[in-house]
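Here comes an entry:

___
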Amino acid sequence: MPQPLVTMVLGLGVTLLVAGPLWARKPRPKPTTIDPSYVSALAVTNRFLHAWQSGDLEAGMVLISDRARHSLNPEAFEDFFSSQATRGFEITRGAGGRGRYRFPVVLVTTRGKQVQRKYSQITITDAGKNDWVIDKLP
């Protein structure tokens, strides 16, 4: 093989070895802009679920919209908050905008050695002046 051809083949091989990992790299996701109202809605969702977790009916009640409050059976609402089980929750990324968000949630309870997971979602709306309220319970 002539010398220039060997040099060219070796150069191409070295280039592929060095540049190969660059081609294999996944593109970085573009940063998403978050609407400040999303943060407020998420904070209220977290406060509501914390009230549920700690069994604080009063703290949970003030975070419910009038529409949701009137559509609820008061006894069922009290049962939702009163439980002797150990409880926790998970909130995943919400969706929505323009004054309304939905957050998928998992309500986790334990009774003895049994763990129960209830998959649901919370809908939250802006009641005005960035005052967020729960419009649909999990």
Observations:
- The chain has a mean pLDDT of 82.
- Residues 36-136 form a domain with the Nuclear Transport Factor 2; Chain: A, fold (CATH 3.10.450.50).
